[in-house]
Specification:
Blueprint: H1 2-8, H2 12-17, H3 19-24, H4 29-32, E1 39-42, E2 46-47, H5 59-72, E3 78-84, E4 87-92, H6 94-102, E5 107-113, H7 117-129, H8 136-149, H9 154-161, H10 165-173, H11 179-186, H12 192-198, H13 204-217, H14 221-235, H15 244-257, E6 261-265, E7 271-275, H16 280-291
Parallel strand pairs: 2-4, 3-5
Antiparallel strand pairs: 1-5, 3-4, 6-7
Helix pairs in contact: 5-6, 7-8, 8-10, 12-14
């Protein structure tokens, strides 16, 4: 298990630099002969990466890339791992692979290496989070998979992907939004700024109402944040000042229990009496007062 965690901590560049060592560790001589070289592989023998964090590929962008591949070929080889006789699985380069299929390319240039599932997951995510066109939901789902499937804490994940913990937390919080809003983020109907403001609302119903207002009134991120601020201010419980009698009772109870006592009232007349204690012994003395 220790070797897995060590491998998981490597960056994509380091893993690819060690491709020759990884490949020659396999007993298959045909793979050993390809170590350090770019091999041309029949595209029908290559399958997508099941750990690919990117779900949506923009169609027009893929067509543009396929046209470029038709004219110039694939400039940057795809990285794959061998999963069976003459069968390979993509580690990184999913978009190039999809564009090559559109371009009806029969063979694609590939780097071959050995990688376990945790390495596959990390490498796919490391490659994808560096892309500018990866949407925020895909990034959040990628982080969640690393946390759940590789048992990483937020701090460990922060170190591995070179992102602040607050940044990671913000992406993960987006996954708490209703599905319709997550889809809107994927489709670029709203931005991450809009989504973060929507997280300020408590219930799903309130979130959806605010979302519909964003759409109907074409609200900017700034106006959405202002709407969120007003909502939070309205939700705050207004402080109710105790009258003289209540304040005197607060002091009397505090004296009786020899402890700090706070009476908190709400606008509707309900409230709480809070009694503080320093330790277990102090708590026992307070409770004794109720038996007297």
């Amino acid at each position: 298990m220790g070797s897995k965690k060590s491998a998981l901590g490597k960056g994509l560049g380091a893993l690819l630099e060690n491709a020759k060592t990884d490949i020659t560790s396999n007993s298959n001589s045909s793979i050993q002969n390809q170590a350090g070289l770019i091999s041309r592989i029949n595209i029908s023998n290559v399958t997508p990466n099941p750990f690919q964090p990117r779900i949506d590929f923009e169609k027009n962008s893929l067509i543009e890339l396929s046209n470029s591949i038709k004219e110039h070929g694939i400039i940057q080889p795809i990285t794959v791992r061998k999963i069976g006789k003459d069968n390979f699985q993509i580690i990184s380069g999913e978009r190039r692979y999809q564009a090559s299929k559109i371009a009806n390319i029969n063979e694609i240039p590939c780097y071959i290496r050995i990688a376990n599932d945790e390495e596959m997951l990390e490498m796919a995510i490391v490659e994808n989070i560096q892309r500018k066109d990866l949407n925020s939901i895909e990034i959040g789902l990628s982080y969640q998979r690393l946390i759940e499937e590789c048992n990483l804490t937020h701090e460990q994940l922060s170190n591995k992907v070179s992102k602040n913990r607050s940044t990671i937390t913000n992406f993960l919080r987006l996954l708490k939004l209703p599905i319709v809003i997550q889809k809107a983020l994927r489709d670029s109907t709203i931005t991450m700024g809009h989504a973060r403001a929507l997280l300020s609302f408590n219930s799903e119903n309130e979130i959806l109402q605010a979302y519909n207002k964003i759409l109907s009134e074409n609200l900017s991120v700034r106006l959405t944040e202002k709407m969120s601020t007003i909502y939070k201010e309205n939700k705050k419980t207004k402080k109710v000042i105790l009258n003289r009698y209540e304040k005197r009772m607060e002091n009397n109870i505090s004296f009786q229990f020899k402890s700090k006592v706070k009476i908190k009232k709400k606008l509707n007349g309900s409230g709480q009496v809070l009694i503080s204690f320093k330790n277990q012994e102090h708590l026992a003395k307070i409770l004794d007062n109720f038996d007297q």
